[in-house]
Amino acid sequence: MNVIGKAEDVVTRTSLEGTLGILKACVKAKTVKRVVVTSSAASIIVNSTNLSEFDESVWIDFDMCKAINLCWSSYSVTKTLTEQAALDFAKEHGVDLATLIPSSIVGPFINPNLLASNNIALALIYGNRENCHTLSLTPMVHVDDVASAYIFLSECPKADGRYICSHVVTPIQEFAKFLSIRYPEFPLATDLISEVKEVKPVGLSSKKLLDLGFKFSYGPEEMMDGAIQSCKEKGFL
Questions:
Q1: Helices (H), the chain
Q2: Per-residue pLDDT of the chain (237 residues; tens, 9 = 90+)
Q3: The pTM is what?
Q4: Which of 33, 23, 22 is nearest to 154 (CA)?
Q5: 158 is an active site residue
Q6: Catalytic pick from 24, 79, 91, 208?
Q7: Domain locations in the chain?
Q8: What is the number of other CB atoms lying within 10 angstroms of the CB of residue 160?
Q9: Whole-angstrom Cα distance, residue 67 to residue 44?
């Protein structure tokens, strides 16, 4: 969802109309057994709680999100309102619905453009100061694990409600060490690390998803291998 340069109300209205339109079509069809809606960790992480790890009970603080006024604030508000509307609609109309809440999705990609999540993961290689700060806070998950989670929630009889899908959370200092060892051919902008405050990355608990029986298959090695290979193939590295 590209929200840069677009008014928040326009983005939100488009997202709500699209999602609710699909759900209404599902009700009308009477043949759809379950719907899995894509949400985002952006519907959780911007809040004023002092929790060290967030679960599905947490939602963003709208006032805080708007006060921060970052470039992705509209995205965060839109994803939250859309997910809440989908859950409310499902409850009212008896739709069997689950929402999947992935963290930053990293790995190989077919899109001709460099996606924001991979751009953030590669911040130390690209030397992007703003993205380094974001990287220091960002939990990640492999794109194939997200795809598997969609299938899993579609098929699991007990699936209901919100499910966080997040697998890797690493302090930026440790992540830089990992990158330097695994990809020595890329010089890292290590000078930017000292500018990043030593804060603990945002913890997102996938316990609810794991308790259903889901298993993650990929770690940071596969995430970064895939992202870097795709970037090489498309001329971004």
A1: 8-29, 62-68, 73-93, 116-121, 123-126, 129-135, 143-155, 172-182, 207-211, 220-233
A2: 444 445 567 788 999 999 999 999 999 999 999 999 999 998 998 777 777 889 999 998 888 777 765 556 778 889 999 999 999 999 999 999 999 999 999 999 999 999 999 999 999 999 998 888 888 888 999 999 999 999 999 999 999 999 999 999 888 889 999 999 999 999 999 888 887 766 667 789 999 999 999 999 999 999 999 999 999 999 999
A3: 0.91
A4: 33
A5: no
A6: 79
A7: 1-97, 103-237
A8: 15
A9: 16
Q: Which fold has domain 103-237?
A: Rossmann fold (3.40.50)
225 token code pair:
């291998």
Distance CA 237, CA 222 (A): 17
Asked whether 103 and 166 are in contact (CB, 8 A), the reply is yes
